[in-house]
Structures are given as structure tokens and as C-alpha cells.
Amino acid sequence: MGGRVSRRRALSLACATAVLWAATGAGSAAARPPEIVPLRLIAFGDLHGSLLPPHGARSEVVRSDGESVPAGGAAYLAAYVRQLRGQAENSVLYSVGDAWGSSPLESAMFHDEPTVELLNALDLNALALGNHEFDHGVAELRRLRDGGCHAEGCRYADPFEGAKFPVVGANLSTTEGSPAALPFSVDYIDGVPVGVVGVLPRNTPDVIRAEAVEGLRFGDEIEAADRTADILDSLGVRSIVLLYKGDLPVPTGHDVCDPESGPAAAVATRVSPKFDVIVTSDGDAPFNCSFTDPLGRPRTVVQGASHGRIISVTDLVIDRESRDVIRDRTASFNQIVTHDIAPDPRTKDFVDRAVDESAAVAGQPVGTITADLTREKSAGGESSLGDVIADAQLAVAEPLGAQIALTNPDGIRADLAHADDGVVTFGESYAVQPFGNRLQRLELSGAQLVAILEQQFQTDVFGGSFERILAPSHTLHYAIDRAAPPGRRIQDVTVAGQPLDPAAMYVVIANDFLADGGDGFTAFTEARRTAGAGADLEALNHYLSTRGPVSPPPADRISVR
After folding, report:
1. What percent helix, strand, coil does the chain show, rounded to 5?
2. Between the CA atoms of 315, 319, 320 and 324, what dihedral angle is there, to the nearest 10 degrees?
3. pLDDT tens digits, residue range 499-545?
4. Which CATH number applies to 33-353?
5. Is the pLDDT score of 25 beyond 60?
6. How open is the CA angle 454-213-158, to the nearest 5 degrees?
7. What is d(CA 505, CA 407) in angstroms, rounded to the nearest whole number?
8. Secondary element (H or E) of residue 116
9. Cβ atoms within 10 Å of 365's Cβ, excluding its own
10. 3-state SS string over 332-384?
11. What is the predicted pLDDT for the residue at 30?
12. Residue ranges per domain, the chain?
């Protein structure tokens, strides 16, 4: 990713040289500390710039006793991190991808500089790249890493100094083949080197706008992880951690720690045995598992929960002589970031400032609703919020002849909760659609439309099956037969009450991410683009203001056979 070398990047590169020096055994034997080195590894992922506790479905976490408790928020996250570090003789703190991107307004309004400053204040040891760090392109990622003002100016800090932690991505390169990010970072723990490697899924470009990652290549994550572990091993680093920001869905009816089909199994059982701990990150499914590595040894694999609600804690014991982790002495747990702890006062002041400075914009009313609009899915995969967003996009484009609107569920980032007065603020609607996607007028044949709908049934990089059901406007109805063979699962399609004609042309509205084939919907690229239709957030806000109060529509657009 080019650019100047930050202080922490220079330190990380210097660490590799220092490891070579340490490998020679230099140093005073008389000053050698005890033979066992304890290390606490603390990690969180999918923070998404959440300075405040999340709202809606993510506002609470279920404890082991079955009780739901409020969770998350940077001030509470900082309090737990400092408490957990204070309990340990040695500790490291890692962020496993998507630290920013699709952020709430209090971070996004300032181009996510507050989130970077938060991570600096937490003394983060390393950040593994996720897909959302690329939301605004490679140049903006470099700026957040290295410092400097945004093209719109320094809104939050002047000067903005950038990240004080290394940003790692071992399988990221330029299209010419040169490394595009640091592959690893090394910290010294009481004189013993501990390495950390970060990787992303090789299909990451499928979930990012094409122009945002132009000039980059995402290689095979397991091959890159293994290669980097070998490099670290050759440098004398024996204790190695893998941070994997990947899409690891839980197969229906399976235990998350099932060694045959659990979500982490494919990575945990295949990646190099040189990795002693694996920390993954994929949203809302925390787990704490042990899998057998390729040499038959147990290896801990942990994951917290998004938006700073659950952090993973792994206590390691390192043998000073071998410099390796003593696996059978590893202990791990997931810590809910509850609100029954005093918030960290310095972080609270920091968050209050960001909230106060964004309040005037965030508090502007944009419309009204009669009840919660959520992302909760029906049997067919549609949601009340997704349906409303699709209807809003259709409404704004009807003057352009639009007949259908479709939007991707992963682009809907928060629920709209009904307050006492039903008013929706700009900050709340922004949290729903924070990407700034542009709407496109597309011309598709009926057959091409069906091909798009068939692509809702997808396969991940490890061969697992999952669904990504597009939110349809009220003009589109069809049935799903999940038992039917691929290519015949979409049935009885109607448009505005009339049977779909495979040969007829239809005007469809979709955001530019989908139009470019994002989220695996490559059939969209066969469409003829004819015009733009504004921004998705503008369409939603206009709909809420002109059609309000808006009620949840019935989930009758997608039926199941």
C-alpha cells in the first residue's frame, strides 16, 4: 500500500532485525529471567467505529445464564481492556479486521479518525485488515494508517497523525506482485519474540466496490499464512498468532466447535501448526474452541462479537528456552463488555467530544415510522427494513421508469428502532446505510433477472453453502424451492402482478456495488446501465419524510415451498 513508513511500521520492520539478533543468543545469562513467560492475548474484531454502544438487535448480549445484558461502547471496552491488562504480567491487544468502515456518524463524520485515535489510546499492538478498512479506497486507508488531512480537511484533529500500530495483511499484494501491507508484526514479551500474522479471505474483492481495491490482489489466505509463519520461524520467532478476518458462517444445525463442519474448522485444521492461537472475526457468533492442528496437537481458536460487545482473552505460557507456546497450558474465554463496570473516564470524554461535535447533524429528523423496522429475516429471507429500503429506491427512480428495486442485505448495517414519537433522525438512518452507494438504473431481461435471483444461493471459499437474499421492492414476488436443483430454485416470478416474461426487458434499480457484481451477483454486470438515481441514503430519507409514518410491510414478497 506504499506511502511513507509510520513510526510503528518502522518499529515492526526493525523487530524483524531484532529477532535475528535475539536468535544468536546474545545477552547476559546472569540477567536471564525465569524460564516461563506468561502472556495474555486480548482481541476484538468488527468494531466498525462503534464509539457508542450499538442500538437495536445488537444492543444486548446473552450471558451464559441466559440473561440478556447491554453490551459494547468504547468507554466500557477501554475499561475492560485496561482491567484485563492490569490482571496480567504481560499482554498484547489485537484488532481482527473491520475496526472502521460502515461506522456510525460520530466516527464516520470525521472520516473515522476518532476510531483510529481510540485504538491509539488503547495501545493496540496490531490491526489485521478486514474488508471494511477498504470502504473508501486504498488511498484513504493509507491516510488513516500514515496520517495527514482528508481532502475535505482535518475535521477532528489537526494534524491527524495516523495509526501508531502496525496494519498487517499477509495475503495482500499489488497486481505487480509486490507486498501491499506488512505481512506480520513482532512484539517482545519479557525478551521473547511473539509474532502476529493477519490475513483476509481470498474472495474479499467480491464484497468491496471494485474501484476501492483497484491495483490490489488478494491471495490464498492459508498459503500466505503458512508462508509467513515459515518466515517468522526462520527468524527465530516460535510463538505465533494468526488473525483471520473471514466469513465463517455456522452451518444450520451444527455446533460451532464441530471439528468436521464448524465455521472455524477449515482454517483451524489446515493452517500451519506453527500458529499457536487463531483469532477469527465475523460479527455476531462468539466461540471458544479447540481444534487439532495438522500435527495432531490441540490449538485454541477464539472469536468475540462485533461492535465491541465481546472480546476474546487467551492466556498463554511460553517456554523461554524454546520460545514456543506450551499448548496444554493455554486457557481462553470470551468476556462480554457489560455496563456494570465503571466506564473508562478518559475514553468517555473522548467519545463525548465526538458525539457532541456530530450531534447537530445526527439529530436532524428525517421522517417517522410506526414500529421497529429490522433486519430480522422471514422464512424466505426478506426483512421489514430491507423491503422498505427497496421500496424507497423504487419510489425515487419511478420517474426514470423503474419497475423493480433490489438491494443487498449486507449493505443494511443497523435496524431502525421505533422511539416514543416515531421520529427517525439522520444519525439513525445513516447507521442503516453508511456506505454512500449510488443507485443505478439498469435494463435487464426477465431471464437475466432470474439469473440474479438464482445467485442468492452461494458457496463460500471453503465450499460451504449459504444464502444472500436480496431485498425486493413490493412490485416483485416469487417463490423459493430450496430442494430444487441449482438454476431452478426461483419459481413463479411476477412483476407488478404479471408473470415474468423471460424475453421482456425490465428496468431495475440497484446500488452501484451490486451493479458491479458485488456480493457474488455477477449476473448484474450483464445489465445495460442507463442513468444514475442518486444515493441510497437520500432515497431512504426522502421516503421516510414523504411516505411517513412508514409501517413494516408484510413479508409476502418471497414465499417458500
Report:
1. 30, 25, 45
2. -90
3. 999 999 999 999 999 999 988 999 999 998 888 888 999 999 999 99
4. 3.60.21.10
5. no
6. 130
7. 19
8. helix 113-121
9. 15
10. EEEEECECCCCCCHHHHHHHHHHHHHHHHHHCCEEEEECCCECCCCCCCCCCH
11. 37
12. 33-353, 364-560
Band (pLDDT 50/70/90 cuts) for residue 19 is very low
Query: Residue 148 corresponds to which cell in the numbers above?
Result: 495527514
**Which CATH class for the 364-560 domain?**
alpha beta
Nearest to 195 by CA among 46, 331, 318: 318
Please report, rounded to a whole number, the percentage of residues in the chain having pLDDT higher than 70.
Answer: 91
Burial of 257 (0-12, 13-18, 19+ CB in 10 A): middle
The residue length of the chain stands at 561
Reduce the DSSP state of residue 50 to 3 states and report it.
coil
Residue 240 has pLDDT above 90, yes or no: yes
Q: In the numeric block, which cell numbers belong to residue 291?
A: 481444534
Within 122-156, residue ranges assigned H as helices are 138-146
DSSP 55: -
Q: What is the mean pLDDT of the chain?
A: 89
Classify 135 as helix, strand or coil.
coil
CB-based contacts of 236, cutoff 8 Å, min separation 6? 19, 20, 22, 23, 193, 323
- Of 527, 121, 142, 548, whose CA–CA distance to 353 is shortest? 121
Q: Is 255 helix (H, G, I), strand (E, B) or coil?
A: coil
Which residue, chain included where needed, has cell 487467551? 314
pLDDT at residue 359 above 70?
yes
User: Which grid coordinates belong to 281?
Assistant: 472475526
pLDDT of residue 60: 87
Q: Report how far residue 141's alpha carbon sits from residue 137's, in angstroms, rounded to the nearest whole number.
A: 6
Per-residue pLDDT, averaged over 454-466, amounts to 83
Average pLDDT over residues 65-91: 95
Parallel/antiparallel/unpaired status of strands 423-425 and 365-368: antiparallel
Task: Please check whether residue 385 is in contact with residue 412, taking contact to mean a CB–CB distance below 8 angstroms.
Answer: yes
CA distance 478 to 559: 6
In Å, what is the CA distance from 542 to each residue of 58, 369, 393, 412? 26, 13, 10, 17
CB 428 within 8 A of CB 537: no
Q: Which residue has the cell 417517522?
A: 368
Mapped onto helix, strand or coil, the DSSP state of residue 452 is helix
User: In the Cβ-directed half-sphere of 507, how many Cα atoms lie within 13 Å?
Assistant: 17
d(CA 490, CA 447): 11
Secondary structure, 3-state, 286-308: CEEEEEECCCCCEEEEEECECCC
* pLDDT average, residue stretch 62-83: 94
Q: How far is CA 298 from the centre of its chain?
A: 28
Q: What is the distance between the alpha carbons of residues 364 and 377, in angstroms, rounded to a whole number?
A: 29
| 247 close to 282: Cβ distance less than 8 angstroms | yes
Residue with cell 491509539: 120
H or E element at residue 12: helix 7-23
First and final C-alpha spacing in the chain: 49
Residues above pLDDT 90, as percent of the chain: 75
Cell numbers linked to 480? 423459493
Which 3 state secondary structure label does DSSP give 514?
A: helix
Place of cell 426514470: 400
